[in-house]
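Hey team,

Sharing the Dimethylmenaquinone methyltransferase run so nobody has to redo it. Sequence (216 residues) first:
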Amino acid sequence: MSQHSAQPALPADFAERCQALGSSTLYEASGLPCAVDPQISSIWSGAFIAAPAYPLVCSPGDNLSIHIALERAPRGSVLVVDASSFIAGYWGEVLTVAAEAAGVVGLVINGGVRDIAAITKRGFPVFARGVSVRGTVKASAPSIGSPILFAGAPVAPGDLVVADDDGVVIIPAGEAERTIVAGEARAAKEAEMMKQLANGATTLELMGLGVWREKA
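Structure output:
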């Protein structure tokens, strides 16, 4: 339990601020290797997650860790499940209903899911590597609630997960406030740039790329 208490708290208003910025801006602002493999994407358009991570590992074709995690994860968490890129139906409508009852707000899985229509209808945000009708066994639970490397990004309990149509980023809890503030500054700069573009400026001018105009 010490790893949970050691994590810095996320800013109180992090979810609203992250939704205004989006995953791409936060990634660029972070300066960190926090981007998850882009093959892990939303199963329905418009899904959004901004929540503290609860990481776990499933053996290939085995979802016992998920069932255990739903009893242990703090309310408000997103499950971050490493299934070693193995595509099977680790998650479906039943686990979605269980997650909603447990206060789990989303799923990011390096593996597969099923019951897409039902999950979409419920509006539960799921980001997965693939979709599969194949079921899973329940025989082993390699890791639950401990830090892991997830599809290219390190993740510890309490880290900030932001996922949307652009992809998934996982920002260390201790870097969350700095990253959000940097993201807001970046967004303000881009808003000013777009205003100037609408008034006739060019990207070559605004980005200092005028030399390429002469070469063309």
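The chain has one domain: 2-184.

Ping me if you want the raw files.
A.
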